[in-house]
């Protein structure tokens, strides 16, 4: 009968533990890379807000799970057309009444979100939900909403700030509408 030296057994167990730790590290790193790839700047924002990468990743995973449970749906062609015409009207009114145009854009984006199946209510939850499928424009949405609030409260906002708010809303509107047609003319840059 061959007896194993206890030192060989300790080394073997140590190697197994090291392999297991390396595998767990690689899995965690892969998950982090996937979340960073999916959420982009929103990933970095969540890490900054939470103060810890793991907590931020947990928050982002919870957002994904919440949105998976929503019954999000594409817009019917007639709804897309109707919303697009409303957007064009809002954009056309910008020159004469930029504050109203921005606040109307805020309202229109909410209506499109509701039509797509997003629950509307508390703004931070809306942002969290939108960030799952539209992470590249969610920071713009935050900025646009802030501009719309300042415009509604009649706080001092320059025409340039209002124009930027409308541009930000347009970017989210296009994402939500799922239409990047030439008819979505840009507000002059």
Walk me through what this model shows.
With 189 residues, the protein is mainly α. The chain has 8 helices and no strands. The chain has helices at 6-39, 41-50, 53-69, 77-93, 98-116, 123-133, 138-152, 159-177. It is elongated and about 90 Å long. The termini are far apart.
Concise summary:
The chain has 189 residues and is mostly helical. The chain is built from 8 helices and no strands.
Based on helices, strands and strand pairing, what is the structural class? mainly alpha
Alpha carbon gap, first and last residue: 84 Å
Helix content range of the residues, please? over 70%
Order of helices and strands: HHHHHHHH
Overall average pLDDT: 86
- Describe the biggest sheet? none
Query: What low-confidence regions span 5 or more consecutive residues with pLDDT below 50?
Result: 179-189
Q: What is the β-strand count? A: 0
Shape: elongated
**How much of the sequence is in beta strands?**
under 5%
Please tally the helical runs, counting DSSP H or I stretches of 4 or more residues: 8
Whole-number radius of gyration? 24 Å
Helices and strands in order, then pairings?
Blueprint: H1 6-39, H2 41-50, H3 53-69, H4 77-93, H5 98-116, H6 123-133, H7 138-152, H8 159-177
Helix pairs in contact: 1-2, 2-3, 3-6, 4-5, 5-7, 5-8, 7-8
Give short descriptive properties of this protein:
single chain; 189 residues; mainly alpha; 8 helices; elongated; disordered C terminus
